[in-house]
Amino acid sequence: MTESRQLCPRCGETLSPAERERASSRERPGICDACYLEGFDLVSAPEKLRVRTCAGCGAVHRGNRWIDVGARDYTDVAIDEVTNALSVHVDAGDVAWGVDPEQIDVNTIRMHCTFTGTVRGTPVEEHVTVPVSIARETCTQCGRKAGGYWASLIQVRADERTPDTDEIATAREIAESYIREREEAGDRNAFITETDETDDGLDVKISTTQMGRAISDRITRRLGGTIEDHATLVTEDSDGNEVYRVTYSVRLPRFRPGDVIEPDDGKGPVLVKSVRGAVKGTRVTTGDRYESAYEEGETPDARKLGSVDDAEETTLVAVEDENAIQVLDPETYASTTIPRPSYLDTGNETVFVLKSRAGLHALPRESVE
């Protein structure tokens, strides 16, 4: 190695063996460690930072979008933003740092940062102060919520009847649960704008059309029924794309579990057990299984006689034979012969019966209690 390679070109001091080795590996004249460290910046930091936060939900604006950061307060937000803005020199090793926030006023936090590390085997330390200003704004999501924005309307109705309180509560819970799942997954576009219980059923306004469809699908999977959708053009976005609102009409089945219906097949009334896809149940005259025909689906040609809520407990007077029993009519108290379905336990002294236009029929005890 030539003499010029053995001297520091800046201070003229002789390079140590380690310094000469580093210089030769870089294929250019090397300077001594003292000169290198004299102009070395351990960390690069901005002179100041402005952090845009949402006053409503606490989200932080980064790049071109709002991000939920889950910070407990604005000091945590400032620490995170300073962390993201700092860069440590690539030649530094064993770097550690700490921060001492100083609250100047409600919108300004001064971040005093201390960095330590090693460079060419020499311990180094650097202090950096970054003022952080907090700008409170309204994020896109909160702005849409405040403005009543919605993209899809779910209308929960029922075929030839009004949804009952249990169905309304279930539909509402399904919508809220789905939106909660999307929020927990980090979807900032997920929110319910409005829920309104009407004389006809339930109306739910949802933030996106995709979520409106997903919620409607969940409702029909749980409660049965069908979905029809109708799109309405409302405006154009900044790029000239057409923007639609979609109404999802969820129509629940005419009958529901617990109803007692009389199909138009002459084989006697049926206690409905399920209405998803088809009506399934049990004949209250025999205990035989019933399922509506494929082409009838959830709306077989039948009339409703009542439900398990209308059943009354009465005395089992006698067992006539394998097909008939005698009970007391709960209205007239007259001893009346009625069909004996296979599910009836004749060891009980009482039986639950439903009196309707089709007569008096015994219902399964477990369906009433």
What this model shows, in words?
The chain has 369 residues and is α+β, with helices and mostly antiparallel strands. The protein folds into 3 domains: 3-137, no CATH class; 148-252; 259-368, no CATH class. It contains 8 helices and 23 strands. It has helices spanning 3-6, 17-25, 33-38, 74-85, 140-146, 165-184, 209-223, 365-368; strands spanning 43-44, 49-54, 60-62, 65-67, 87-88, 93-105, 108-119, 122-137, 152-158, 192-197, 202-206, 226-236, 242-252, 259-263, 270-274, 280-283, 289-291, 302-307, 312-321, 324-328, 335-339, 350-356, 359-363. The strands form 6 sheets. The chain has a 5-stranded mixed β-sheet with strand order 10-11-9-13-12, with helices on one face. It has a 5-stranded antiparallel β-sheet with strand order 17-16-15-14-18, with no helix packed on it. The protein has a 5-stranded antiparallel β-sheet with strand order 21-20-19-22-23. α6 (165-184) packs across α7 (209-223). The longest helix is centred in the middle third of the chain and has 20 residues, at 165-184. The protein is elongated and about 120 Å long. The termini are far apart. The relative contact order is 0.08. The mean pLDDT is 87.
